[in-house]
Design brief:
Length: 230
């Protein structure tokens, strides 16, 4: 058997140069697509955050102790519109291997939406909106993914809104609603104390500090109002 020990034919310089150009052209296109998608996700995230804040402001205009026949069509439509925007982002940019590439850019907006949806649940249903109920209500049979991290941080921001509601109830001399708000905040705090292995404990610690301040403010409002009822 004769073995060919001759060196492989050398590529021409023009061919090597062409291969390098193709490699860098492909890399440039990949990076351009990545940066373009990142910018679009961030733009959508800002819109979702803005609309979620608007929904929270609308919820604060609700009367204390909603009547059973109160018209919720406007706020339901607003929250449904926001959830459809989140669904659009997931459908267009967060599929397959790209989910965790761009998910962090939409996280703040998702947390703001969770805060709005949970505040509505507190006002209307008088309970805490679970992650499962959130997904079932707004993202059933969709590719939207709400991780526990975003849910917990979104929920922790709810304390400030509940405190504002309690102050509003106190100005209307509604002792029972101030008490309900305080009980809700204390239950929320108790739940957070049972959380372990949180990815960013320092961030949760800041949220818990804010939650504790909201509890103290609500307690003060309840104490002041209780004295006037003596």
């Amino acid at each position: 058997m004769i073995v060919d020990t001759s060196p492989p034919p050398k590529k021409q310089k023009g061919s090597e140069s062409s291969d390098l150009v193709d490699i860098f052209t492909s890399a440039r296109k990949c990076l351009d697509t990545h940066y373009d998608n990142t910018e679009k996700v961030i733009r959508h995230s800002r819109d979702i955050t803005r609309l979620s804040k608007k929904a929270i402001f609308a919820l604060h205009r609700f009367p204390v102790q909603l009547p059973q026949d109160y018209n919720l069509d406007a706020i339901n439509k607003e929250l449904s519109h926001i959830s459809s925007l989140i669904l659009t982002v997931f459908s267009e940019y967060l599929q397959g291997p790209f989910l965790f590439r761009y998910y962090r850019h939409i996280c703040p907006a998702i947390q703001e939406f969770i805060e709005a949806a949970a505040f509505k649940s507190f006002l209307v249903d008088k309970n805490l909106l679970s992650n499962n109920d959130l997904v079932a209500t707004y993202f059933a049979d969709s590719p939207v993914f709400i991780d526990d991290y975003s849910y917990i941080l979104g929920l922790s921001d709810l304390a400030g809104e509940v405190n504002r509601y309690a102050i509003k109830a106190a100005t209307e001399n509604n002792l029972s609603e101030v008490q309900r708000a305080l009980d809700f905040l204390k239950a929320l705090e108790n739940g957070f104390f049972h959380i372990s292995d949180f990815p960013q404990p320092e961030k949760l610690a800041v949220k818990l500090h804010t939650l504790r301040e909201s509890i103290l403010k609500t307690e003060h409002a309840l104490f002041t109002l209780s004295i006037t009822h003596l």
